[in-house]
Amino acid sequence: MKKNSSHEHDLQLRQDLDRLTLMLDASVDCIKLLSCDGTLLRMNRSGCEALGLEHGKTAFGMKWLELLPQDIRARGRRALSRARQGFKASFSGRSELPGQKTVYWDNILTPVMGADGAIIAILCLSRDVTRQREAERKLRIASENDALTGLPNRRMFKKHSALMLRKRSRGEEVGLLLLDVDYFKQINDAFGHDAGDFVLKAIAARLESVRLPTECIARLGGDEFALLARKTSNELALEQIGARIHASLEEPVHYRGRIFQIGLSIGGAISSSRLKEISTLFKASDTALYQVKSSGRGGLIIFSENPREYGLESSAGVLRA
User: Where's the PAC domain (predicted)?
Assistant: First the structure.
């Protein structure tokens, strides 16, 4: 009687385990059972497919951490250590199989307690968050880039500028150029916004083509662009960047049989002990740009902290405002 009872118990246990396995295999989440030392004991179908392992094994025996990409293993190791201490732990990871797209996962490790309260295993649940990551990436791009030209927008540019100003070192100042397209309104008024948009995209492409790795180009809005240059030691260096920009626009822009000769007015400034905030650096560059426009457009002026050097008596007052 006892023998039959034991046999029935084992049979019931196997049936329960089979049902549990079927339930786990139906899940789109990757579910893994690990020993306390990180050895992979069991895994459902989704987990096997994600890691490129044969499904249907009753045991695996390999170290789970070794199945993760090299740069993810430290995160997994920390999460496993915390789970061994009796705490739930989580980390972000990914899986990479040859010939397949990268899949991103949110992983949660939960300690499994025995009847005596001791930790006997670790349950790892991994959920595919690839679509969420892609949606977040697109949203981030949309919030940081200009929709028309693809360049960084004003918000992203000012954020990047502020960071560069904080990181600058003595002798390696930050140079800022503000660029306005000359007579752009006439293009829009005479030929329509489609023509204006085409010209703006062409200008953006030219600016990007001559940008150095130490420089950042942005569209601030309308017909306003900006360039930020790291490691700009003096006005001559900033003037050379402006000359490079002007040269990139010497070739006219062709649009539906029409030819547009594009000019830019450029005002610039270099960071200093006085111009160490993004707001003051922008004001200085804008002051220089105003002087260019007042003197006939198409040129370049670099802001001087001694306004009399280029005849702009009021610029210092502008910076104090």
Answer: 89-141
Where residue 228 falls (left for φ over 0; alpha for ψ -120 to 50; beta otherwise) is beta
| Residue-range domains of the chain with CATH | 2-134 (3.30.450.20), 145-320 (3.30.70.270)
Question: CB–CB of 184/201 below 8 Å?
Answer: no
Euclidean distance between CA atoms 56 and 78, whole angstroms: 29
Is the separation of the CB atoms in 214 and 230 below 8 Å?
yes
Residue 177 burial (C-beta neighbours within 10 Å; 0-12, 13-18, 19+): buried
pTM of the model: 0.60
- Counted residue by residue, the chain has a size of 321
Instruction: Divide the 321 residues of the chain into consecutive groups of 10 and give the mean pLDDT of each group.
Output: 53 53 70 89 82 66 88 95 95 86 92 87 91 83 85 90 80 89 92 94 95 93 94 86 94 93 94 88 94 88 69 37 27
Nearest Cα neighbor of 65 from 96, 33, 84, 40 is: 40
Three-class DSSP category at 249:
coil
302/103 Cα distance (integer angstroms): 49
